[in-house]
Amino acid sequence: MEKVKMKQDFLKKKIIKIFKLLKLSNKHSLICANALINAELVGAPSHGLSRLKMYCDRIKKKVINPIAKIKVKKISQSIAHVDGNNSIGFVAADIAIKTAISNAKKTGIGLVAVKNSGHYGLSGYYAEQAVKKNLICMVFTNAPPAIAPHGALKSLFGTNPICFGTPTGSKVPFILDTSISMINRGKIRVAAREGGKIPEGVALDKLGKPTTDPKKALEGVQLPIAGFRGSGLAWMVDILSGVLTGGNHAGRVKDPFTDFSGPQNIGHLFFVMKPNLFVGNSFNKRIKDNIKTIKKLPKIKGVKEILYPGQNKFNRFKNNQKKEISISKTVLKDLEFLENI
Known about the structure:
The protein is α+β, with helices and mostly antiparallel strands. Helix content is 39%, strand content 16%. The protein has one domain: Malate/L-lactate/L-sulpholactate dehydrogenase, NADPH binding domain (Ribosomal Protein S8, Chain: A, domain 1, 2-Layer Sandwich), CATH 3.30.1370. The chain has helices at 8-21, 26-41, 52-60, 89-107, 123-131, 185-194, 214-219, 228-243, 283-295, 311-320, 329-338; strands at 3-6, 71-74, 79-83, 109-117, 136-141, 162-166, 174-178, 203-204, 221-222, 266-273, 325-328. A hairpin with a 7-residue loop joins β6 and β7 (174-178). α1 (8-21) crosses α2 (26-41) and α4 (89-107) runs parallel beside α5 (123-131).
């Protein structure tokens, strides 16, 4: 797959220009650009620039509101409810995580629910913001149908990621950000656009047969991790981020790439807390002991170090911070087209 390299600042300016052409404010355009660039730098291009055209298409079709009036309803000192007013997901989520962080700093706990939002990129991006403020964080969001509930013939749950982040007493945060599917849907979409294949054992076609063809996988069903357990986790996320928040749930979240019949009304839930709530100032010592103990375990052949979730991502980000970003010819065409809308 042929790639083109671009400087980060140059690319960010392009993205901001595109969103501003679509009537987003400079501040909101910057929020979106930062999230998309971050996805590229941490090695998750499936949630980066490959999705830019999708967001723009939804704005042009008037199912994302570029001038959304987002409302934050204060329920208590710790709890708030955000109505995204069908904004682009990055903006609603940015307000929500900042509110949750602020509340947690004041009271020890910040719980913020979001409704009427859209796809917001990587859950880990928001968890990292909390961890940088020395806070523990859990993030949930639902997604369009991709996975069949255990025992069902029809897909209904999204790939509904589960995300957890905690300070580690070092510069490298512990960030677990994982979809409950064998492979995230973004990777399947990138493979479909770029003419690639997907691994075996991650999806079935619409006839229920295993497939490595990404287009057939998108028409069929993705497989959850750990069978019925993965399906159960997807259901849990659907309840926490959909039922609880006032967002769409039970398969009603619209596919952002193909369904322009209305807004997605995705729900998000951000739960942030101080690490010293129960063990005082000993948390850092305890988390360091936890990680050190696990890293000292005997290793299987070929493993040099037992890594905790987030270490690889942190290293990729650090290595890529000063490098140019490689984008595919398909994404380059998107950029060139969108700059002239």
